[in-house]
Amino acid sequence: MKEQKLVLRNVDSFELEHIFECGQCFRWNKQEDGSYIGVIKDGVLKVSKRKNSVIFEGILEGDINSIVYDYFDLGTNYKKIKDELSELGESMRNGIEFGYGIRILKQDLWEMIISFIISANNNIPRIKGIIERISEKCGKKITWNNKDYYLFPTVKQLSKLSVSDLRLLGTGFRDKRIYNTTNMVLNKEIDLEKLQLLSNTDEIREELLRLDGVGDKVADCISLFALRRYDSFPVDVWVRRVMNTLYIHNEDETKVTKKELKELAENMFGDMAGLAQQYLFYWARENM
DNA sequence: ATGCAGGCGCGCA
DNA sequence: TGCGCGCCTGCA
After folding, report:
1. Residue closest to C9 C1′ by Cα
2. pTM of the entire structure?
3. How far apart are CA A277 and CA A230, in angstroms?
4. I need a surface site. Which of A99, A103, A125, A161 has the fewest CB within 10 A?
């Protein structure tokens, strides 16, 4: 762990609020000065903006340059993607105009699996609280600027917790799912290293669906936010709402099936459905 | 207070 | 395959 700093000038498509509030992450918190501090796999990171510069500083294991490049998806040309998506109509243009600074983070696969299992039938403040308590309970402590932070626990660390330990941390009925999935990973009933190497998004989904607590929506979130599968399209209530309002116009949005939504998304957005989803989702969350 | 929140697993047709 | 239902918990 080493204190490091990095300043990048003229980064395209990079708005802190858009990136951290668009629903993809749970461990980034806004500070009073408008900056964000987050705990990621590699340590603690603070991100702030000044004019055209983005400033990264923190205490990290590894080189800050490669960590930031990878985590913030700096190798992807968002301008090009937004230009292409904008061709698809006014609704998408509005969504992109609203969330122009979004980037899809590349977060740790294991952490995303557990985080999105926790997200089931839950709300964001509570999800964040649960993840925080789990990390405090068995994750590695890191002190930075006189404050304590806790990394998300490793598989081995989390496997030390019993079902009732997990229940006590407020996970509710998700306790067994977390426990079972942790043990599947621990016992190599599913190999996360191999999963990262799969090329086909459907293959990845099939593998993830074997895990307890991972259904359609959760699997899609994991493959989008940890494995950068831009073609996966998580359908939740907000996506259903905004897609129905903009494109389907069914008087009862609950009648619109997941299958219908996914097919529409694939036809309209193709292999960029996941990115399109983020712009629509963020717009919907803030405006509907 | 009752309903609800970024679903899932289960049992049943 | 495709439904409907119950579910921890905290918050309005």
Report:
1. A172
2. 0.98
3. 9
4. A125
A7 touches strand B (CB under 7 A): no
| Chain A residues 59-88 within 7 Å (CB) of strand B | none
Q: Which CATH number fits domain A2-75: 3.30.450.20, 3.40.50.1100, 3.30.310.260, 3.90.1150.10?
A: 3.30.310.260
For residues A201-210, give the mean pLDDT. 96
Angstrom distances, CA of residue A159 to CA of A109, A222, A226: 16, 20, 21
> Which nucleotides of strand C come closer than 7 angstroms to any CB of the protein?
2-3, 7-11
The Cα–Cα gap between A143 and A146 comes to 6
Do A116 and A223 meet the contact criterion of CB atoms below 8 Å apart? no
Q: How far is the CA of A257 from the C1' of C3 (A)?
A: 12
A109-225: what fold? Endonuclease III; domain 1 (1.10.340)
Q: Which fold has domain A237-287?
A: Endonuclease Iii, domain 2 (1.10.1670)
Establish whether the CB of A219 is closer than 7 Å to any nucleic acid atom in strand B. Answer: yes
The three-class DSSP label of residue A171 is coil
Six-digit token pair at A44? 């603690």
Across residues A48-65, what is the average pLDDT? 96
Nearest to A232 by CA among A197, A191, A268, A277: A277
- pLDDT digits 0-9 by tens, A148-178: 999 999 999 999 999 999 999 999 999 999 9
